[in-house]
Amino acid sequence: MREISLPDTQATTALGHALASVLRAGDCVLLEGDLGAGKTTLARALLRALCDDADMEVPSPSYTLVQVYDAPVGEVAHFDLWRLDGPEGVHELGWDDAREGVVLVEWPQRLGTLAPPDALRITLAPDATGGRIARLEGWDTRLAQSAVFGTGDASWA
Questions:
Q1: Per-residue pLDDT tens for 86-142?
Q2: Could you tell me which residues come within 8 angstroms of residue 86 by beta carbon, excluding any fewer than 6 positions away?
Q3: How many distinct structural domains can be found in the chain?
Q4: Is 152 domain-assigned?
Q5: Contact call for residues 45 and 63 (beta carbons, < 8 A)
Q6: If DSSP codes are grouped into helix, strand and coil, which group holds residue 64?
Q7: Does 114 map to a domain?
Q8: HEC profile for 32-55?
Q9: What is this structure's pTM?
Q10: Domain-embedded: residue 124
Q11: Residue 138 is part of a domain; what is its CATH number?
C-alpha cells in the first residue's frame, strides 16, 4: 500500500495525471471514500489526462450511473454506483463490455463479488490539515516500475 498526501486540488489532479500514465485496456480503478472525499475530482483529472483534453467536460455520472469516453488507450467507462443497492444492476449498465477498456468505479462496494481482484483500489480520506490522503492498494510492482511512481516519493505531485 502507498499513501500519498493530497494537500489541495492541484495535488489530486497531479495524482490523476500520474495514474493515467500507467493505465491500459482491461484495468479497473476502484475509488472509495465518503461523500466529498474527492473521488469525482480524481476521476475527472484522470479522464482528462487519458483523453489528452484538459478542458474536456466530465460530468459526474451520479444520475446516469455511467459515462463512456473514447481515449487513445480505448474506451473508458466511469461508473458511479452510489444509487445502486448492490451488484444486480451493474450488468445492465454494460459492465461486462466496459471491462474490455478502462473502468473507473466510484462506490465500488456496490459491486460486491464483481469487483475485480486485480483492481487498483484508491481510498480517499481527509487528513488533519484539511487536505486528503490517498491510499493506493494493488499494482505494487506495476507502480514501482513506473517512471512516475517508482521514485518512492510524491515528487510527481
A1: 777 888 888 999 999 999 999 999 898 999 999 999 999 999 898 999 999 999 888
A2: 110, 112
A3: 1
A4: no
A5: no
A6: coil
A7: yes
A8: ECCCCCCHHHHHHHHHHHHCCCCC
A9: 0.88
A10: yes
A11: 3.40.50.300
